[in-house]
Amino acid sequence: MSNKEAVNNLQTIPIGDSGSMSSLRLRHFNWRQYIVYFAFIGVFIIFSLTLSDSGFVTTNNLLNIVRQTAIISIMAVAMTFVISAAEIDLSIGSIVSLSSLTSAMALQHGYGIAGAVIAGLGSGLIVGLINGLLVTRVLIPSFLVTMAMMGITKGLAMLVSHTAPVPINDDNYVYIFGSGDVGSIPVLLFWMVLVAVVGHILLRKTTFGRRTLATGGNQSAARFSGINVAKTKLYVLMGSGVMAGLAGMLYAGRMHSGRYTFGEGDELSVIAAVILGGTSLFGGVGTVIGTVVGALLIGTINNGLIIMGLDVSQQMIIKGAIIILAVAFGRKAMNR
């Protein structure tokens, strides 16, 4: 249909026919962009009504959901950039375990908080850099690179720790990175908001964000427009490693120790949060705010099912079904 025909069709709608105009607006409404918000509100209302006598809506429990979700949200923000660039990072869970141990070991050897920060973030940066170079220079698919790096990094974490936890006795570190509260608000919430705001601005308001989306949308067109696709992919994978490093430090602070088991399976929750939030698995479309809401949705489901007293197997089945329904409904609405 030409633009002229489209205009003529619009002109045939009577001005007073508000029903037709509403139908037209609904037809062009991007349901996929907002499906995660509707799902989150719906799940929250259901649990609030069914678990009102079990303490679901108490301040304590809502803050617990934030504590349980914040670290996943931080990694998911970085993963939004990776997936928007049409890549994937399966090594983030193992980076978490390694960085929790390196930061704990730095504290144990007397290097202080600064040393722990350098060790934790540096571990993530190095692994992310290796991932990025293998993807952009050696041209190995990121799925294979990061899957292999997941095993290498996990093995390294087990090797340096001898599979034993490394305790943290620095109260300042513990307060700043995970266990502290400002009044009644957990420090983890501040970390989550900070990363989400910076991520949102970076993706939506900067040249780097536009280049990331363009790279994921159409690499050939991005190259012709002058975008250094390889450098963009390198940067997003490095950023993913750094945020996984931060997540490991937060795990260590919250649990008062570094452990090689931290982060196991987190990559699945992170990717689910990103896709639920509206980021396209094929790249080119990304939303940081949607990702955070997706993480909160998963955290709320986990929390509600635990309060309901379901065992782990039942929780996994129900959570998986809800996620599939939410994503499927979003795709169906998008394709209308």
Task: Please supply descriptive tags for the structure shown above.
mainly alpha; ABC transporter involved in vitamin B12 uptake, BtuC; two-stranded antiparallel sheet; disordered N terminus; ABC transporter permease
Overview of this structure, please?
The chain is mainly α and 336 residues long. It has one domain: ABC transporter involved in vitamin B12 uptake, BtuC (Orthogonal Bundle), CATH 1.10.3470. It is built from 15 helices and 4 strands. Strands 1-4 form a two-stranded antiparallel ribbon. The longest helix has 27 residues, at 229-255. The protein is globular and about 60 Å long. Mean pLDDT is 88; it is low at 1-7 and 9-13.
SSE string, helices as H and strands as E: HHHHHHHEHEEHHHHEHHH
CATH architecture, by name, is Orthogonal Bundle
**Widest sheet, order of strands:** 1-4
Q: Span from first to last CA? A: 17 Å
- Looking at the structure, what is the overall shape? globular
Provide the gyration radius in Å.
22 Å
Q: Return the CATH topology.
A: ABC transporter involved in vitamin B12 uptake, BtuC
The pLDDT mean sits at: 88
* Assembly state of the chains shown: single chain
Number of distinct helices = 15
Give a quick account of the main beta sheet: strands, pairing sense, barrel closure.
Answer: 2 strands, antiparallel
| Portion in beta strands | under 5%
Question: Structural class, from secondary structure content?
Answer: mainly alpha
Helical percentage: over 70%
CATH class, please? Mainly Alpha
Low-confidence stretches: 1-7, 9-13
Instruction: Count every beta strand, where a strand is a DSSP E run of 2 or more residues.
Output: 4
Number of domains: 1
